[in-house]
Amino acid sequence: MLDLRFIRNHPEVVRDALEKRGVDFDLDQLLSWDEKRRKLLTQVEQLKHSRNTLSEEVGKLKAAKQDASEIIQKVKQISGQIKEFERELDELERKVKEALLLIPNIPHSSVPVGPDESANEVVRVVGEPPEFSFQPRPHWEIGEDLDILDFVRGAKIAGSRFTVLKGWGAQLERALINFMLDLHTREHGYTEIFPPFLVNRETMVGTGQLPKFEDDMFLCSREDLFLIPTAEVPVTNLYREEILPGDVLPIYHVAYSACFRAEAGAAGRDTRGLIRQHQFNKVELVKFTRPEDSYEELEKLTNDAEEVLRRLGLAYRVVVLSTGDLGFSAAKTYDLEVWFPSANCYREVSSCSNFEDFQARRANIRFRPQPGAKPQFVHTLNGSGLAIGRTLAAILENYQQEDGSVVIPPVLRPYLHGLEKIPPS
RNA sequence: GGAGAGAUGGCUGAGUCUGGUUGAAAGCGCUCGACUCGAAAUCGAGUAGGCGGGUUAGAAGCCUGCCUCGGGGGUUCGAAUCCCCCUCUCUCCGCCA
Length: 425
Fold this sequence. Notes:
This protein has about 425 residues and is an alpha+beta fold. The protein has two domains: about 5-100, Helix Hairpins; about 115-420, Bira Bifunctional Protein, Domain 2 (BirA Bifunctional Protein, domain 2), CATH 3.30.930. It is about 40% helix and about 20% strand. The chain has an eight-stranded mixed beta sheet. A three-stranded antiparallel beta sheet has the order 5-7-6. It has a three-stranded mixed beta sheet with strand order 8-14-15. Strand 6 and strand 7 form a beta hairpin. It binds one RNA strand of 97 nucleotides through helix 3 and helix 4.
């Protein structure tokens, strides 16, 4: 959510941002509602002021045992008027609030301008894609042959885009989770959180999933609870409606969670393999920082996520998203894309974003810079560190051998009882 | 799920029965000042948030109004206080990993 006062004072900046994102939004409508609202508010406040002072007089007269019926009549009339105006005011406020929740964040000045992902820019390429003396196979074939991935039974018990991990597959998934959590907690200074996987509506609004993207979410309608699409949602909302003391910042949190996505708009895309699932595991990094530090923190966070890929020995590149590809709440995003030999291309395994105060304003997360100072909104950031399923798929493909076996990256072996290779079945 | 108790400022906690300068006593904490070589102790002052209006190029600051005592609605000239609904917390019972 943007600051309404900022929109009022700098409509041209907001208009420019909307255009760069390719978003159609009626800003003039919002501004005229806001102007009407403020005029009405002033009137209502004046009426309330006279009501308050007159009521006080009634109290004084009654205490002095004098007649107050004349004033009481007058105030009754004023109250009626207030009620009438307030109905109108509520309607305007509702409209303004709803509109405000639908305006995306303003892209940072360093973000490349462009209509879609074709305008994204590669920031750096790290590592060499492996050479194969044979035709590398896609991970779903490797996994099924090794009897560690079961797509057929996943579809049977839950539906398409659900997969069963088995044997070394299940253990490799668990190893990846533990490896990432250990790395970020022990070496990068993050505090681990294990959050609820179901959250309420206010929480989903806080991070920006609602109201705009409800169709992409799984909803437990009986309780009106949503399955989280990422741990970003519960973890960012940990401090919703709070004023944090300035000295606790920056806060670094890392959380493992299962993630649930309806993938409503993705019918027919990535139907094979682990790339696009309704349920997947992810280790997520979340930061709360002072405004002046957030862009430096974004670089550090991105580097923390990259470290996972470097240690796993996977070739990857870092891409900065253009204005047309940027997510609704983000001001700047780096995607980490890992090499997939079978597809001969890079695919996203992490998305690291700075939301500035966009989520903090929605969720009302503030801090007091100094004891006694006025509260300010924090900046929030997050990034996958990393998506587990896609990482597992990348390992299967990049470490596959001609005989169908898969070598385990050395850093993971301690998590797999020293296993060096998943043997062919 | 059943029965009961409760939710007040950064925290503890009065006020609710008996509606009226109580946006809220007191204590703690915090900030600033005095004392001190410095600290502790002591003393003094200050210390909730939000939304408007004025001043300003704007911000800060200052002046001013409105709202908020878990959330929403109602009664009343006037609600922390009375009534209704919701949420959460605690205690007891039931159930359960």
